[in-house]
Amino acid sequence: MKATIAVGISALMMSTGAHAVSLQNKDSSSYDIKVKSSSSTMTSSINGGVVKNNICSSCTIEVDGVGSVDASGSDKVVIKDGKLTVK
Questions:
Q1: Which of 81, 75, 39, 87 is CA-nearest to residue 63?
Q2: Mean pLDDT calculated for residue range 31-42
Q3: CA pair distance 53, 22, nearest whole angstrom
Q4: Which phi and psi angles does 82 have, rounded to 5°?
Q5: Domain residues of the chain, as ranges?
Q6: Which SS3 state, helix, strand or coil, does residue 4 take?
Q7: pTM of the model
Q8: CA-CA to 45 of 20 to 30 Å: which in 16, 26, 37, 78?
Q9: pLDDT (tens digit, 9 = 90+) per residue, 11-22?
Q10: Can you say how many angstroms the Cα of residue 16 is from the centroid of all Cα atoms in its chain?
Q11: SS3 of 30, please?
Q12: Strands 31-36 and 41-46
């Protein structure tokens, strides 16, 4: 019984953090961002050198003046040298 509970808790912990998109700004300047999911749009900003974790599970990230990308699962979206990439 204890083993079953431990396995269930471990699976839950891995599923919450392992499948969330992150956004990292490797530039020194800040950017305005929009995160569009199927049900909502969030507007925010990201300062230089900052990482925002758990932005969404599946969404489009639009960075003002840079572009937009679709991301899902454990994708890492990176702003670097004024360009947007998904890793």
A1: 81
A2: 96
A3: 4
A4: 70, 15
A5: 20-86
A6: helix
A7: 0.77
A8: 16
A9: 434 444 457 999
A10: 13
A11: coil
A12: antiparallel
